[in-house]
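Field reference: sequence -> structure
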Amino acid sequence: MSYEIVYEILLVLLGYFCGSIPVAYLIGKIGHGIDIREHGSGNMGTANVLRTLGKKAGLTTLILDMLKGTIAVLCARFYLWFGEYSYFGTDGDSGFPLTLDEGFFLALVAFMTIIGHSLPVWLKFRGGKSAAVGAGAMLGISPIAWAVIMIIWFFLLKYTKLMSLSNLTVTLISIPFYWYFGGSGNGFFGNQSLWALIVSVVMVVFIYWRHRANIKRLLTGTERKMGQKVDIEEKKETVEAS
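Structure field:
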């Protein structure tokens, strides 16, 4: 048995544990002495931190959550550049169309950061909705796609004032952007593959499932817009799947 598979499994686990770092929870506890899960929407994400603790805390949460995904994927990326990828036990020379190639490996590590953020072992598997960490993972997978997606996200947020809508929109369009910019002709960042596409679709479905309460509020017109503050003394709203 090749030892490379051990390194690859460790990198997959690294993805989970990077994603599981509860940034919003730590900012609330260390910086403000509150459990962010007990205020506002109860979600451990940028929007709830921004409404509850202000712009500085919200921006810090956004950046650090994105870095979780970026760092994990870049670790996997460096392994692919300088290591010897074993295709997770499949034969890379077999010609089988669904060989577990490099694109699959990067997508799997990215997915594990999302799982870690949403289901952190440290907080009894009660985490956030993973949009920011997913965006950070995209940076490590395809910087060009990330830049385009972030520009679209910024303008959507600016004009709609709905972070959930902006997040859900760019999450959905991330798949075709990944496919377009992740082609094998894109130098070091080429990682287009059918397996990676399959994993990416599963990631999008998972993120949408995590946002199911937001989707319900968007459809009923009750979703909070950016700038709507939450009293720090206000206890968590009674909302489904917050």
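Note: The longest helix spans residues 55-82.
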